[in-house]
Amino acid sequence: MDTVVAGALAAFTVDLLIYPLDTLKTRLQAPDYATRFPSGRGLYGGLYQGVGSVIIATLPAAGLFFTTYEEAKSLLASSGSPLANAPPALSHMLASSTAELVSCLVLTPAEIIKQRAQVVNKQADRNASSSSTKSSAACPATTAAGAAKEVLQHAQPGEPKAKLAKETVKHAADKFPIYESLRERLGKWAGLKAGTHKEDGGVDDVRSSEDFRRQASQDETSVAAEFGKAGLVAGGSAAIAGSFAAVVTTPIDVAKTRIMLDTGADEAKKPLGVIATMKDIAVREGWKALMKGGALRGAWTALGAGVYLGSYEAGRLWWRDRQQRSKKA
C-alpha cells in the first residue's frame, strides 16, 4: 500500500507540474508543426489540452508500475533468484522493463489521446472556423473527447509498439539502472540511514542496533529530516538519470510522436514502425530532426523525475514508518 499511494500521488503531482513543457515538446515534434503553428502563433496557448486523459490514467498506471517494480526488484535480488549474484544494474533493468510493460497497458491509449489533443491550435481553428473550404480531413480534434473519438476510429497498429519501445528503452536501458546506482552512492555519501539497505525497507530495520529507532521515536524532527534527506537523494539521482535517458532516447520519442499523431487520413500511406519512422524522418528532414525537442525534453524530465521519485521515496518511507508505529502502539 505504501508503494501504491506514494507512487500515485507523486505521479499526479508531476504530471500537473510538467504538462505544459510536455505539450511544447510534442508540438515541436509534430510533422506539420509549421502548418499548425505558423510563425509560432498559438504555440503557447492551451498548454493543458488533453490533461484529463492523463490524470485518469496516471493514478492506476503509477500504482501498477511501482508495485511491479518493487516486487520484481526484490524477487530478482533474492537468494533463490538466478540473478542473485548478478550486477544490480541487470536486476534493475529487468524489473523496470517489466513494470513499464505492465503500466503501458493503461498509459498507451491515454498517451495517444493526450498527444493528439496537445497539438491542436485552437487559436488557428477559431480564425479558420468561418472558412467553408476547410476540409474535414485537415480539421484536428479540438478536445480530448474529440481526440479519443479520433483514436477509436483511426487507431494505427504501430502506436502501442511505439509507446512500449520508447518507454521500455528509456526506463530499462538508461534511467533506472543509473538512478539506483546514483541513489546508493549519494545515499552513502550523505550518511543516509533510511532506504539504503539491501531490502530497501523502512526506518525500523536500517540499523543492526535499536539506537536510532529509540532516538527517532522521541524526536519527530529527526525522523522528518531523515525522510527529507531520502527524498533529496532520490530526487537528485532521478534528475541526473532521467535527463540523460531523455536526451539519449529522443529519436525514439520523435518517432513515437509522429506515429501517434498519424490519424490514418492518408490511406495511401502505409503505417511505419519505430525504426522505419526514424529512417523516414532522417531521409526527409535530416538527422537533426530526430533530436527535435531533445533539450526541452531533457530539462522537463530532470525536473519531473526529480520531483516524482524524490517525493515517491520520501512518501513511501514515511507511510511505511507510520504503519509500523501504528502496529506497535
TrEMBL record:
Solcar repeats (start-end): 1-75, 229-318
InterPro entries: MCP_dom_sf, MCP_transmembrane
Lineage of source species: Eukaryota, Fungi, Dikarya, Basidiomycota, Ustilaginomycotina
Keywords: Membrane, Repeat, Transmembrane, Transmembrane helix, Transport
Keyword Cell membrane: no
Family of the protein in this entry: Belongs to the mitochondrial carrier (TC 2.A.29) family.
Pfam families documented for this protein: Mito_carr
Subcellular localization, as worded in the UniProt entry: Membrane
Membrane topology: Multi-pass membrane protein
GO cellular component: membrane
Protein's name in the database: PET8 protein, member of the mitochondrial carrier (MCF) family
Domain of life, source organism: Eukaryota
Broad class of where this protein is predominantly found: membrane
Transmembrane in keyword set: yes
